[in-house]
Amino acid sequence: MEKIVPHFWFETDAKEAVDFYMSLFEDSEIRTVQELEGTPLGENTVAYEFNLAGQHFAALNGGPNFKMNSSISMTVHGKTKEEVQMLWDELAEGGHILMPLKAYDFSEFYGWVEDRYGLSWQLIYTEGKNDKQKIIPSLTFSGTATGKARDAITYYTNIFQNGEIFEVHEYESGQASSEEAQIAHATFEIMGLEMIAADHPETVDYQFNEGVSLMILCVTQAEIDYYWDKLSAAIEAEQCGWVQDKFGVSWQIVPMNLSELLSTGTRKQINAVTEEFLQMEKINVERLERAWEKAAE
């Protein structure tokens, strides 16, 4: 089971977006649906967990509080140019093209697009290579975070289990117009999830925010405590398991069984768990489980 899960924040159209994404990738399905009542986000607060290409993702109808941007995108490896073109045609319809699909110095066939729902995708032809992970979360450091990609991947691979940096490519002279940009492309892995990081070569300002976050699924309270201490760098961002790290990236540090507590049992039990975790900053597993059990009496 995956321990780190990319999470997407939508205003109201999470279900429509999730259905659309599942139509594009094989081995895709809904895992759970969590209908939450009594939240400050409004009546239409629904959380989804789902698979795309066999990988675990999550989404939320959270209202207008946060908007996704291109600071975190999903890079998709296409085995054929036809596959890349198909995905491009679907994702670009009604969206915004950041880099046209064409040949570049670094790739024979590549494009970067923000889809109609606001999620950013990088599509690249991998010449038939069999990758263990088709969709790779990719961090782009821009604005005040430009130049911090190297520090970030070093930090992440040190604090997470099985952290490993695979390759780091620096910008050559003249490749980046931003003086702070150093890393053109780096790949690394934390807790079994392969990721990409880069400094944006231009002077743009795509700030990391809660629009796209990374959920850490923890088995024990000790795990929650550990990652909370290592990652939380902004007190004002601490709420309901959410933290923001020193690079600006948002994380959700939650118990592995939170999805089960919010999607099984009676409506009374689900509401009791919801009410309990809405009062928390750092999640307390025992309190959530006790609320679920008490509501079952």
UniProtKB/TrEMBL annotation:
Biological processes annotated in GO: methylation
UniProt keyword annotations, A-Z: Methyltransferase, Transferase, Ubiquinone
GO molecular function: methyltransferase activity
InterPro entries listed in its UniProt record: Glyas_Bleomycin-R_OHBP_Dase, PhnB-like
Domain of life of the source: Bacteria
Family matches, as CDD domains: PhnB_like (cd06588)
Keyword Transcription in record: no
PANTHER family registered for this protein in UniProt: PROTEIN YJDN-RELATED (PTHR33990)
Domain PhnB-like: 2-124, 133-254
Pfam family, one: 3-dmu-9_3-mt
SUPFAM superfamilies found in the cross-reference section: Glyoxalase/Bleomycin resistance protein/Dihydroxybiphenyl dioxygenase
Species for this entry: Atopostipes suicloacalis DSM 15692
Protein name: Glyoxalase superfamily enzyme, possibly 3-demethylubiquinone-9 3-methyltransferase
